[in-house]
Amino acid sequence: MEKTDTGSHAGMAGVVRPAGVAGSPGVIENQQGSPRGRGVVAGLVYVFEQVMPDPFVLSLGLTFVVIVLAAWLAPHGTLPVILTSWYEGTFHILGFALQMILILATGYAIADAPIVQRGLRALASRVTSPARAALLVFPVVGVAAWLNWGLGLIVGALLSREIARRVKVDFAWLVAGSYSAWSVCNSGLSSSIALSQASHGNALNLVEKATGHVVPLADTVFAPFVFIPTVLVVVVMTAIFIRMHPKAEHVIAFSEPHEAGAHADEGDPHARAAGTSSVAARMERSMLGTLLLLALGIGYLAMTWREKGFELDINTTILIFLLAGLALQRTPIAYADAIRRAARQTGSMLLQYPVYGGIMGIMTGTGLAPAIAKTFVAVATPATLALWSYLSSLIITLLIPSAGGHWAVQGPFVLPAALALHASVAHTAMGVAMAENVSNMLQPFWAVPVVAIAGIRIQRVMGYTAVTFAVSLVIYAAALWLIP
Question: What residues form the membrane-spanning segments (predicted)?
């Protein structure tokens, strides 16, 4: 049984070496119980296990790096400005952090619904080999992530567990595949950059503030330069992951945890309410509370969309997923139990968001982010600005993993450049979002809830997703360069 790390995973499951593999030629068992096989992918897995620290520790290291860079390169990198910017950034992000956690929690509640769970088990039951696992995981998770990034994270982790219970596959490879499929989320309907530019009056709608116009989703999410590479990443990475699966003697399979009480709270969540006829229990089982919230939410959406037209932003996305989860879970107590289970996966996010908020504050307050972005923009032309926006975003994403927070930092500098050069505003904005997709494969922030639910070390997963980083880097860059 693999030991667990705070912030990396929740200890819900572990990995074991199949019988007969220990001591096989070409396999070296390290202290974490992972194989050191031959080849590029095995080498990447080994390097990430040995070099990459816990995500929270990594965020602290990035904070130190940003402080040094700000003091060295930023125009306002004095100690008082750094300290003030760090403090303001740490607490300014809390509202956005809660929105992101709610997206994750409401997505979890949908995936946790009995009817969805039965569907995931039915899908998993059809898998008989690693190749079929990849052919199932990539399209299912890709579509779910395109619809909502929180739903994609949860479906990917839970579907990976269900498949791994039935088929002998390398569990880190499978979880990495689901996370790779999830990477397209910033090109989908829950993209905070695309949604904010399409939402009238949104605080992050920098295009509207500068031009008086919004950018509809037809020009971003549904545009060929975004949609085509999104599909290509899913298709190409499916084929690559099939070929990347370790040989049988190198596989580290999924294993259910054996700790006492590990599943003590995973029984029927309705058992307490069903076992009594008290007034409180009847209220918990009643659908009246669910119907009330559904009526309020549906009524608000119908009224707003009738008056202002259909539009999605972060809050309406959360509301829609709240309503969908309530409808699927049916009773208030069932939904409350699902959210409580989801809350166990958000601890590391609560811990890391303030740290990254501090990093964002330092980069913004000291002028470090503009210095980085302007270096790229200075050499851009109308035809190449979107590509330079994309390349600079790759760097900034590693320091600010939230797409919304990232846009708040980079948008104020790449957008004026697009207007001044008469370049495509949609291409420039989505270049930032596409780079988020790519850099997330090396930035562990969003992998934390996946590995927490799946129950595996994040380092082994990131060794595989490094390949996704390299491939998707080329695909998105080519799309920005070649597709109008």
Answer: 56-74, 86-111, 131-159, 221-242, 287-305, 317-338, 350-373, 379-401, 413-435, 465-483
pTM of the model: 0.73
Query: Using N-to-C axis directions, what is the helix angle for 149-166 and 171-182, rounded to 10°?
Result: 160
Q: Nearest 5°: CA angle at 240, between 428 and 236?
A: 40
DSSP 203-259: TT-HHHHHHS----GGGTTTSHHHHHHHHHHHHHHHHHHHHHSPPGGG--EEE---S
Question: How many Å apart are CA 114 and CA 126, to the nearest integer?
Answer: 19
User: How far is it, in rounded angstroms, from Cα 1 to Cα 221?
Assistant: 43
Geometric angle at alpha carbon 204, from 153 and 294, rounded to 5°: 55
Q: Three-state SS for 275? A: coil
The Cα 191–Cα 204 span in angstroms is: 12
Instruction: Report the helix count and the strand count for the chain, using DSSP H and E.
Output: 23, 2
CA distance 371 to 73: 8
Distance of alpha carbon 33 from alpha carbon 2, whole angstroms = 7
Write the pLDDT tens digit of every residue in 290-307. Answer: 899 999 999 999 999 888
Distance CA 482, CA 224 (A): 11
Coil, strand, or helix at residue 78? Answer: coil
Q: Given the structure tokens 């060929």, which residue do they identify?
A: 224
- Reduced to 3 states, what is the DSSP secondary structure of residue 475? helix
288-308 and 314-329 helices cross at what angle (nearest 10)? 150
Paired tokens of 289: 């509370």
Query: Phi and psi for 267 in degrees, rounded to 5?
Result: -80, -160
Mean pLDDT within 355-359: 84
pLDDT in tens, 109-154: 888 899 988 998 999 999 999 999 999 999 999 999 998 887 888 8
pLDDT in tens, 11-45: 334 433 333 333 333 333 333 444 444 466 666 66
Taking the C-alpha atoms of residue 322 and residue 386, their distance in angstroms, rounded to an integer, is 35
